[in-house]
């Protein structure tokens, strides 16, 4: 098991996803940000089923940076409850894991 996280965040627009990803990398909280989308999302919000197009932001970061990344997202994300989850990275190519650590500050 590595100490790396793959953090998945849904965003309402490409601009929001890019802004959060750029800030996470610039502040050395994440080594890398990837953007996917748009994707079609269906969800229940305040008792109503909603549909929207969203963008998926992936951040690669050490687990030690979770709290600071969460704070960054809550500051920049327009949703009341951003969908933000972290998946543990069970294995990683050793040179890549080293690169993540070299490009972040925990």
UniProtKB/TrEMBL annotation:
Coiled coil (UniProt feature): none
Entries under SUPFAM superfamilies matching the protein: GlnB-like
Biological process terms in GO annotation: response to metal ion
GO molecular function: copper ion binding
Family membership noted in the UniProt record: Belongs to the CutA family.
Protein's name according to its UniProt entry: Divalent-cation tolerance protein CutA
């Amino acid at each position: 098991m590595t100490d790396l996280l793959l953090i998945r965040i849904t965003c309402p627009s490409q601009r929001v996803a890019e802004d959060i990803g750029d800030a996470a990398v610039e502040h050395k909280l994440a080594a890398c940000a990837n953007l996917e989308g748009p994707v079609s999302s269906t969800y229940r919000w305040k008792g109503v089923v909603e549909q929207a197009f969203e963008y998926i932001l992936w951040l690669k970061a050490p687990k030690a940076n979770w709290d600071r990344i969460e704070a960054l997202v809550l500051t920049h994300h327009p949703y009341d409850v951003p969908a933000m989850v972290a998946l543990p990275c069970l294995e990683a190519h050793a040179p890549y894991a080293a690169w993540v650590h070299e490009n972040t500050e925990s």
